[in-house]
Amino acid sequence: MSLENFSKHFIKQKMMRTVIISLIPIVFASIYFFGWRTLILLGIVTMAGVATEWSFEKNYNKKVSEAIFVSCILYTMTLPPTTPYWIAVVGIIFGILFGKEVFGGFGKNVFNPALVARAFVYVCFPTPLTIEWSKASLKFPGGFSNYITEGVETVSQATPMLLFRDTGKMTSLIDLLIGNVSGSIGETSAILIILAGIYLIYKKVASWQIMSGVLIGFTGLSGILYLLGNSQIPNPIFGVLAGGLLFGTVFMATDPISAPKTKEGKWIYGILIGVVTVIIRGYALFAGGMMFAILIGNTFAPIIDEGVNSYKRYKKDKAKEKEVAI
Fold first, then answer.
1. Cβ(159)–Cβ(205) below 8 Å
2. Are 15 and 205 in contact (CB under 8 A)?
3. How distant, in Å, are the alpha carbons of 10, 96, 263, 326 from that of 312?
4. Which stretches are transmembrane (predicted)?
5. Is the Cβ–Cβ distance between 89 and 48 less than 8 Å?
6. Tens digit of pLDDT for each residue in 202-219?
7. Cis peptide before 126, with omega less than 30 degrees from 0?
8. Is 38 in contact with 32 (CB distance < 8 Å)?
9. CA distance 57 to 9
10. pLDDT higher at 129 or 299
11. Which of 165, 183, 303 is nearest to 248 (CA)?
């Protein structure tokens, strides 16, 4: 498709293209760690996602948003490498329909569509989403020479968070930074996600207040519980690097549509997500928790903004009353 034909069917969104650029190294790393199946899965999910949005937008003579590509990439990166293609397709269709289109399309959605899709398949298809994992490649050429890497035999050792929950053992921090550990397709390499976050902040595409708020809320509560001797809570550094916390912080929590718009609201929102993640990870049935924490944050985002704006109006009115009294 030429650039001219592309522009006829898609809304140009510079911000979304910047996010896609930041995700490219993570996509290539996912191929290295888990094999070419990850790229095929991404392609299938993207075709299904674009087709779903187009089928709705054409009825209103609207173009498809380039944000659909971001949603498809983010959703795919949160899946296990072995996720059946049909399950992945069902998930993205559900996420676009009920996380985006039912609210009126791009810019009107309350929840992050990629997370709606991920939560749906997580709940509906627990076996392939929580039990079947692949080992990460350790030596070059890694997954570049394989369709998919070898499967993990012991479920309790499938991911760093599952390993900690079941045995109390913590994966090497170096391995977590590099990403050569089993886990979701794009959530394993902490260093690549951190670099992507720095890039998005530099480009003023993602909110550093939200990112900082999540890390403050998470490390604050997990640090307190860890120091109190709570065995379900690992040390904060491991907690930040393991699981999907960093990926969710950089790419999901900062979604400008489903996050608060006020500066103060962004801090509150981020801290809320960080705190809820600790609670879910430590005391719920789920080894992760970031996905549900962000969806909970999405629910409260409008209320947080309203509360912040109401407080500002209250302070302003009080200031006027004081001036009149003087």
1. no
2. yes
3. 39, 35, 12, 21
4. 15-33, 68-98, 110-131, 173-202, 208-229, 236-254, 266-286
5. yes
6. 999 999 999 999 999 999
7. no
8. no
9. 10
10. 299
11. 183
